[in-house]
TrEMBL record:
The protein's name: Ribosomal RNA small subunit methyltransferase I
Catalytic activity: cytidine(1402) in 16S rRNA + S-adenosyl-L-methionine = 2'-O-methylcytidine(1402) in 16S rRNA + S-adenosyl-L-homocysteine + H(+)
Residue stretches making up the Tetrapyrrole methylase domain: 14-210
Gene: rsmI
Any one cellular-component term (Gene Ontology): cytoplasm
Keyword Metal-binding set for record: no
Length: 295
């Protein structure tokens, strides 16, 4: 058991400090105070953080802690904490550790019994989620998907039955292929695309994946994007008391086929998938679908 009374901590404290994702006005008073008071700032890019510090009128020792040296820096930073120095960990934007370096240092500091104190700040995922109009709970933050389409689809496949809103990050030049793969694997779900949050050109697209993709075919995507995707239906595959409960149990055959059609399958494919899931002959599903439809 490791207990921490944060406001009684002294000396070697690791502060995990959130910084703006675009709008400097989002930096909290507390973040400013911590950056001014610590002994050292560990940051992704010293040039980037120097700009933030000079905007705040703070001059402070900095050490780079980024994707490529984060493991090599661990013992040095831990050593400083153990000497009683306080360190603020920041990334270029948002919360450290969220698709940014931080995880290993935080883990090691916790393991070494050093106090780790969050100083909450802006975060693209939560900002996009809460304003998406999609259910904010439960949600699953996935971050960046693999760049390679095959690997990306394999990753998406893991989450296709998850009854939780899904949140992704993506770079502007990959947003179209990424959304195509999301639609291919998860179906034509509702989505909210948030671009340039907190900045002058902040923009939202809230519609089905297919409608957003059509618009993005016409306009070259620019800026930073966060993608919020509707989760699978709540009664998706779930294990109850160790027993598999089929997600479609509450649906009629027609509703089951329509569920697949709404997610991008043709009628023929939807009937095939329904037949496979219900272990029924395709002909029976076809007849039942048309019987219900024709009524
Ligand atoms: N640590 C950051 C956070 O807490 O949100 C995320 C850093 S990650 C390297 C950068 C990605 O976050 C971008 O590619 C984009 O997907 C998303 N992002 C960052 N700023 C954004 C913004 N202003 N608007 C929309 N998405 C943003």
């Amino acid at each position: 058991m490791k207990r921490q009374k944060s406001f009684e901590s002294e000396g070697g404290v690791l502060y995990v400090v959130g910084t703006p994702i675009g709008n400097l006005g989002d930096l909290s008073e507390r973040a400013k105070q911590v950056l001014a008071e610590v002994d050292l700032i560990a940051c992704e890019d010293t040039r980037h953080t120097r700009k933030l510090l000079s905007h705040l009128g703070i001059s402070k020792a900095m050490i780079s802690y980024h994707e490529h040296n984060r493991l090599a820096r661990l013992s040095l930073l831990l050593g400083r904490l153990q000497e009683g120095k306080s360190i603020a960990l920041v990334s270029d934007a948002g919360m450290p550790g969220i698709s940014d370096p931080g995880e290993e240092l935080i883990h090691e500091a916790v393991q070494a019994g050093m106090p780790v104190i969050p100083v909450p700040g802006p975060n693209a995922a939560l900002s996009a989620l809460v304003a998406s109009g999609l259910p904010p709970q439960p949600f699953l933050f996935i971050g960046f998907l693999p760049r390679n389409s095959k690997e990306r689809m394999a990753e998406l496949d893991k989450w296709k039955e998850t009854p939780a809103t899904l949140v992704f990050y993506e770079a502007p030049h990959r947003i179209r292929p990424m959304l195509k793969d999301v639609m291919e694997v998860l179906g034509d779900r509702k989505v909210a695309l948030a671009r340039e949050l907190t900045k002058k050109h902040e923009e939202w697209m809230r519609d089905s994946l297919s409608a957003c993709l059509r618009l993005l075919e016409e306009e070259k995507p620019r800026g930073e994007w966060t993608v919020v995707v509707e989760g699978a239906p709540v009664d998706g595959n779930r294990a109850e008391n160790g027993r598999d409960v089929t997600w479609w149990q509450a649906l009629t055959v027609r509703e089951h086929v329509d569920w697949h059609i709404r997610r991008g399958k043709t009628k023929k494919e939807a009937i095939q998938a329904t037949a496979a899931e219900r272990s029924l002959p395709k002909r029976e599903v076809y007849n039942e679908y048309h019987r219900e439809t024709d009524q």
